[in-house]
Write a structure and sequence with these properties.
The protein is mostly helical. The protein is built from six helices and three strands.
Length: 151
């Protein structure tokens, strides 16, 4: 089979899923950037706090983008910013971002609803097929990452 028989359907599926995820997140009441920020803080474990530098590294976005995301989330009461503890070795200028109770509630609900919805999208695909697809996509991802550079 030619590459077009694999890559074109992958592009179509990826676009369909990306469009659906945007609509689903809109319905839930959260944008993808905010979900990414809150999820990253949630995964960090108690006290659900990271420096802006750590957030940028873990989300793979620029410091400027993190600053904008944090400012929006702080305005919405989802996170709080504070100077980071200098004893952590983060540096005097580091800013710590912590998930608020409202942010924690939102991210838990958003992830639960998103995963439930996406599980329904895959409901017609039997478990063995899901496993095989996940394995093949993983192998493809690994192969592509060794052939394609970000630069």
């Amino acid at each position: 089979m030619s590459s077009i028989g694999v890559i074109t359907p992958l592009w179509r599926v990826a676009k369909t899923l990306a469009d659906d995820r945007r609509r689903t997140l809109h319905r839930i009441g959260i944008d993808p950037a905010t979900l990414d920020l809150l999820s990253t803080l949630r995964r960090s474990g108690r006290p659900w706090s990271l420096t802006t530098r750590q957030l940028a590294a873990q989300t793979l976005v620029t410091a400027g983008a993190i600053s904008q995301r944090v400012a929006r989330a702080e305005r919405d009461g989802l996170v709080v910013r504070a100077p980071s503890d200098p004893s952590t070795g983060s540096g005097r200028q580091a800013v710590s971002v912590t998930l608020t109770a409202a942010g924690h509630t939102l991210v838990e609900r958003a992830v639960r609803e998103l995963l439930t919805h996406e599980e329904q999208l895959l409901a017609e695909l039997p478990a063995p097929d899901r496993l095989a697809l996940a394995e093949l996509l993983g192998r493809l991802g690994t192969a592509l990452s060794s052939k394609i550079s970000d630069g």
